[in-house]
Amino acid sequence: MKENKINEPQVVLFQAGNAIFVHSHDDEIGECHVKVSIDEIESVTYSERQHQCNIICMSDTHVVKTILTDATIEELMAVLPSDTFAQIHWNQIVNLKHIDKFQGKTLYARNTIYTIDSRYAENAHMLFKAKSIINSTLRTTVNDEDDALFVLNGKTYHRVNLSKFTYISSDNNYTFLHVIGLRTPICTIYSMNKWMNMLPPTDFIRVDRSHILNIHHIDRLSATALYIGDRAFPIPRRNTHIITDFFTLIRRQHPQ
Asked: Is residue 202 part of a domain?
């Protein structure tokens, strides 16, 4: 008996569901199209031996799933978001949302290290530049806690979730990012005004010329200071509106 075939392209974009359907083969039902969450895709690699693309997916619980598809690299690149997916080799695509840090031509994901081919270096580096703190933050589509940006620390760009920023301090021409899990703050050359323009105004508040605080990490407050842990941030007399601003932000986070 002749097997029925789906008369559709190898890959179909399901934009409303933030997913794609890729042509594959299932042991039980045979030829089919499989739904793949775009956010879960970490990389796509074409195998010359199998003559198929191997889609590596990483779920929220860090479970790795592999999907084989007859779709080509070119067909997949045509539908995947161009602002988050970069072709780094003739047979490989990576999702920048899964990259934790990068240095030169080396990309580091949770369990995998990727190397950018020189011929495709511009593709990835242009995207990273667009995602760096020079221009904009890297927004994920899952929820606000996944908002992140790439910060240059030494010669390496590190992906840092905004929710892990406790506060930012400044000293002359440098600013220091205090991040949960890091022993020492990350030193940057960006001004406090530039940070305030990039950070979500609903989550960060500027106390004085030298300190920006993440409101989610403020433990206590008085008429004269805000506290993160044991660290006190005095409120200048000219900035007494800070208390009112803080409670306004809290109410917006949790509307009555």
From this structure: yes
